[in-house]
Amino acid sequence: MFKSCAGAVALGSLLLSGAALAQEKIKVGVTATLEGTYTVLGEDGIRGHQTAINVLGKKVGDKEIEFIIASTDATPDSAVRAVRKLIEQDKVQILLSPLSGDEGIAVKNFAKTKPELTFINAASGAQETTYVDPAPNFFRYNMDGAQWQVGLGKYAYETKKYRKIATVGDDYSFIYTQVFGLVLEFCGAGGQVTNRQWVPLGTKDFASVIAALPDDVDAIYLGLGGADAVNFLNQYQQAGGKARLMGGSIMVDQTILSAKGNAKNALIGTIAASGQADTWEDPNWQKFVKAYQDAFPPAKRFPSPSLLATNYYGSTMALILALREVNGDLSNNQAKYREALSKIVLDAPNGKIKLDSNRQAIGTNFVTEVVDDGKGALFSKVVKVIPDVNQTLGYDPAVFAKIGLPSRTVPECKKY
Amino acid sequence: MTRFIERHPAWALILLIAVAVMLWLILAVWPPGLEEAIGRKRVFLNAVFNGITLGSLYFLVASGFTLIFGLMRNVNLAHGSLYLFGGYIGYAISTWTGSWVLGFIVAFLGVALLGVVLQIVVFRRMEGQDLRQTMVTIGLSIVFADLMLWVFGGDFYQIQTPNWLVGPIELPLVTAVKSSGEAVYLRYPMVRLVIFVAAVVIGIAMWLALNRTRVGMMVRAGVDDRDMLAATGVPIQLVFVAVFALGAGLAGVAGVVGGTFQSLSPGEDTRFLLASLVVVIVGGMGSIPGAALGALIIGLAEQLGSVYIPTYAIVVTFLIMVLVLALRPQGLLARR
Asked: Where are the domains of chain B?
């Protein structure tokens, strides 16, 4: 009798504590590309995410945020699968997802089927995600690929005097967006883009692509990332390539600049543009770099955070700060939380970030040049800082809409 | 050869014309009209050479796979893991000692040893049970992939090419003639040529070993009729172990090659498993010449595809596989 009574009490208290626990936790699902071509990018994204948690803490009033991480492989279906798993099995209330361009478009569309939850983009940068038919519950605190190229075209044309360039890029939405930003500005300044080559994401053997590069251009723009970029550079070196290079935002990035082997040295002197610059003097940026370096032993991180780490840091920061502003109140389909998210002005490491009416970031962009620090490590050095870059790249929205959506052939090389 | 011509005169003629056209495309200076139609000769020549060198890498992986299957009827789906493991060993050794060649030797021995252990500990226990072996190898490949991810992380590793192999060399093939009448020769990465030559040497050595030696005779007899061979008193288990070790070792060597001209990272294991599956399906399960032909076809298809129809390049490989499965399901050079 006594025994069964004690058992019932124990069971009861267990149930009670379970209920209490559920009340105190806010569950957040995180996705990153921890498999496939973009593994290294996903890993560093998670490092940035972890750094933000270290700096800001997990507490929101008397509640605690619980983060659950799921892995994807940069394909849209893997991202939707991971997000579904997080929602259906782990019962998350907020999502920090995804990392890559095509994933972003898929997750945004999926977000519309879950209007009661809030989605915060982790790092993906395709233009379409927030520009075309945006989801009211999808927020993006990083700029898109085209915004990340602002300044590069002009710098190449005016300072470097490049007149004709060709591009090689991975064949998916983020790189389309990057080339879109580059072509618009470079051709607008008077330059010519003679040839655009697209290779499938995950290409390993670039030898034939390299052979097909035109000789009669001033520079070649590389819009590759992850393993593809490393393989390209390796084979480019073996083929004795000598052309001047320009880089996209995930090409000239610590994910590539700290790869093992010496093929990356082909990038020294390469000009690029991105949402960050490794050597920026700004105290806020330096503080972030220090926090990142302190959080992980040198063998388990890059010398300096990659663009992905910075993006995950920024989006995690927005997630936590907005939650604190509403004191963890997610009632009424998270209406208050969304209000807070759309109004927040982030003092992010890579400059101030605010959202436009499509819940897309307006932020700071950097033109950079790759330098060797003398000890064999490569960094991107600031050449130019451009504040307040919006999604229409300073164009009148009506004119911008006429250009069309980024694709293999859009935009045409002309002045709009 | 003569038998083939006698039996299929039409096919032989088509093949002969194809070879002649190919030779002309490679050797002749292209007339301007052709250059306009399909692009510069340099691009074409490079794609062909790259296809052949990529094919030689595929051949190294697939020959071990097909050898093991031919003798033991064991579809080793952990073959890709052996490839990646070999690559990592090669990377560790070559960065540690600074010797590229030593990387190959240690990778071969290390992975061959792993093959021996696998054969003795795992596969011998389930001889003749195809399905069970296949399931076990899938499980092993997942375990290996996670172990390697744990040890080496998700980084990209590149094996440093020795200095004498870096950079291109000029081949005596004219790609174009300048207006001054001066010929422009094809420049091609040295390291890929060396790898191609090495693959050819390995291929010929394997063919000789199988067709001209006593052990090779035993292996061939085992492929034809395993039970009969055992009945004649040949230590069949020893032959199995040796073949498995050789097949695994070749995958290890291929890993070093792949790590040199591409890169090593998680996911490469499944990619090369898939590549070798496609290669042996096209070439014919269990046949070494089949693996060579299949690897050549797939390598060429990938590279020419990536230049001339970049958007659909991925499809071409599988299209070839589908065609072969539809028209000659046993593979192009299968004997039975």
From this structure: 38-327
Least confident of A91-95, A125-129, B37-41: B37-41
For chain A, positions 201-230, list CB contacts with chain B under 8 A: 203-205, 207-212, 226-227, 230
Which one of A209, A261, A262 has the shortest CB-CB distance to B306? A209
Q: Do B155 and A259 touch (CB under 8 A)?
A: yes
Chain B touched by A239 (CB under 8 Å): yes
Q: Is A182 on the interface with B (CB under 8 A)?
A: no
Q: How far apart (Å, rounded) are the C-alpha atoms in residues B98 and B33?
A: 50
Nearest to A134 by CA among A107, A156, A108: A108
Please tell me the distance in Å from B282's CA to the nearest CA on chain A.
21
Domains along chain A with CATH numbers:
2-143+285-363 (3.40.50.2300), 147-280+365-403 (3.40.50.2300)
How far from B328 is each of A151, B40, B105, B223, B286, CA to CA, in Å?
57, 35, 38, 21, 15
Rounded Cα distance between B73 and B68, Å, is 7
Question: Nearest C-alpha of chain A: how many angstroms from B65?
Answer: 21
What is the pLDDT, as a whole number, of residue A18? 46
Q: Do A39 and B154 touch (CB under 8 A)?
A: yes
Q: Which amino acid is at B144?
A: F
- Interface contact A263, partner B, CB < 8 A: yes
Mean pLDDT computed over every residue of chain B:
87
Cβ A53 vs Cβ A319: under 8 Å: no
Of B160, B188, B262, the CB nearest to A205: B262
Residue A25's SS3 state is strand
Q: CA of B44 to nearest chain A CA: how many angstroms apart?
A: 8
The fold for domain B38-327 equals: ABC transporter involved in vitamin B12 uptake, BtuC (1.10.3470)
Gap from A324 CA to chain B (nearest CA, Å) = 34
- As for the ipTM of the complex, it is 0.74
Q: Average pLDDT of A38-63? A: 93
Q: DSSP letter string over B43-100?
A: HHHHHHHHHHHHHHHHHHHHHHHHHHHHHH----TTHHHHHHHHHHHHHHHHHHH--H
Average pLDDT for chain A: 90
Is the pLDDT at B253 greater than 90, yes or no?
yes
pLDDT digits (tens, 9 = 90+) for B274-321: 999 999 999 988 888 899 999 999 999 988 888 888 777 778 988 999
Q: Which residues of A touch B265 (CB under 8 A)?
A: 39-40, 227
**Are A333 and A115 spatial neighbours (Cβ–Cβ below 8 Å)?**
yes
Q: Is A409 on the interface with B (CB under 8 A)?
A: no
| Range scoring the smallest mean pLDDT among A50-64, A363-377, B215-229, B288-302 | B215-229
Closest partner CB to B158 (pick from A34, A43, A263): A263
Question: How sure is the predictor about B336, in pLDDT bands with cuts at 50, 70 and 90?
Answer: low
Looking at residue B313, the DSSP 8-state letter turns out to be: H
Mutate to test the interface with B, among A47, A204, A215 (most CBs of B within 10 A): A204
Q: Answer for the pair A366, A275: CB distance below 8 angstroms, yes or no.
A: yes
Q: Which of A47, A176, A238 to mutate to test the interface with B (most CBs of B within 10 A)?
A: A238
- What is the arithmetic mean of pLDDT over B178-190? 80
Higher pLDDT residue, B108 or B188?
B108
Per CB-CB distance under 8 Å, the chain B contacts of A263 are: 158
**Closest by Cα among B325, B221, B235, B215 to B281:** B325
Give A14's pLDDT tier (boundaries 50, 70, 90).
very low
